[in-house]
Amino acid sequence: MPRPDRLRVDTTSDLTYEPPAALREAAARLPGCPGVYTFHGEEGDLPLYIGKSVHLRQRVLSHLRNPEEVRMLRQTRRISHICTAGEVGALLLEAQLIKQQQPLMNQRLRRNRQLCALHLADSGQPVVVDARSVNFAHTPRLYGLFASRHAALERLWQLADEHRLCGVALGLERAATGKPCFRSMVKRCAGACCGLEPLDAHHARLQAALAELQVACWPYPGAVGLVETCQPPSGSPQPAEGQPRRQIHVVRDWCYLGSAPSLTAARKLDTVAAGFDGDGYLILCKPLLSGALKVLPL
Ligand SMILES: [Zn+2]
To answer: Does the pTM exceed 0.70?
Structure first.
């Protein structure tokens, strides 16, 4: 799934444009630590673009030098930033702020509205389910994630072709009972439709094909705090100015609820997760399941 925060670039780049001195000076003063930055526009200080970086100053300066981003720079009146202890905190905060503020120039997929997955039903056939009707954080045998129902079915057909699975056995198409399906006649199905392959064997191959897409269930009974400690830049014993030494990211059911400096403050952030957070899942799945972050029960 593509990252949600791509900046819409302007095809008519302007090589002669120079950002105002005030903007360049503000960018040069940014700290060299991880965090999230916002380009604010003239009208009502509304956010034009929100991004994250492991090095705020370098990243924002690179925006100012990019001729393809002149349209945004012309509208920018100021740049604000929030430092985080590390990269995970920056990723979580960026996704949260983009969702809350919907900046004009973040090319964002509306994936939370129609986030879909394949669910291996008791019948043995995969069915498309969406995050509004099924609790993605706690449902086993879920595979995905997909931005739409169409994308889920397309991936299933792709798996069928790669693994010579039968469209009829998968419930994707109909054929007269016991008759070979069209794909079996062109050797794209191993023949579960017409007895050439036992259904059990077909089902086992389907499960193996889906395994790499498995959505992990939330592995804790409730909310947890993920501890992220800042790594001061080499040669400096101190964090950058404004950078927290340590953050506890509060997460429940893959849903990011906020960050706090202490366990007591973190507990106050624990609320009921509002639906499945696809961004939280994609950001946290690897660092959490691999044990890269220290986890505290709340
Ligand atoms: Zn078939």
So the answer is: yes
